[in-house]
Request: fold
Amino acid sequence: MDDLTISQLWRYPVKSMAGQALPAVDVDGLGVVGDRGWACRDEVRGGIRGAKKLPGLMAFAARYLDEPASGGATPHVEVTLPDGTTVSSDDPQVHARVGAAIDHPVTLLPLAPADDLDHYRRGAPDSDDLLTELQQVFGRDADEPLPDLSLFPPEIIEFESPPGTHYDAYPLLVLTEASLAHLASLAPDSRIDVRRFRPNVVLAGGSEGFVEQGWVGRTLHVGDVELDVVGPCPRCVMITHGFADLPQDRRLMRTVVREADQNLGVYATVRAGGRLRVGQPVEVS
Reply:
């Protein structure tokens, strides 16, 4: 195996808002400590919603006012709105200001305990037709395959995320620079930017192509940290949204479906937690 190192580490304080590239992060059984500590509840359809349904959220950014700690309460965040103004999550006006910026009423909420099932329960779908709903969520054309839903934890059929978390399916998303470079070669008219794909851990080195797809069932060792690769990450409509300086790009999904079997990056769970740092070597076993 060619030498692999951590080149980027990302934490997303608010689900679907821009993340923070950090020099080091702590990981525990729930992934990067503080990742998706906050999320928006849809006050029209109900349920926690991300940019699959509320794409305007990707134009926001957020940072923690205090550093989160494993097992501790979720600290407040400062949210930067698309117009550059900021509002804190402890400001009574935060919900109205975020909702006004996306023209949709929402409430910004921190993680709830895993037994608060109503917090995590899915809201009403946009379409009564399940196929139409899934095609919208995953950004698929009518002639394109949908992901194999058995790849996902069974609880996300009923809940927006595994209760006790705000991530979509699994604690970590691992992506290689090799995959980004290969995708760029296959989609020369698209801007392949890591921000579109929202990884937690980006690795440099390794083979060419979509190298991490061959790691399913294997373990990544980073110092004392051990990450089990549990499956590929089927991409959803979020990678096509325009935000910040990135344009909307529906063609990108066509390329990912056709050339990458609709996957980019891999999901991982945490076997042994600890601290990850940019520049650390990574072994795959």
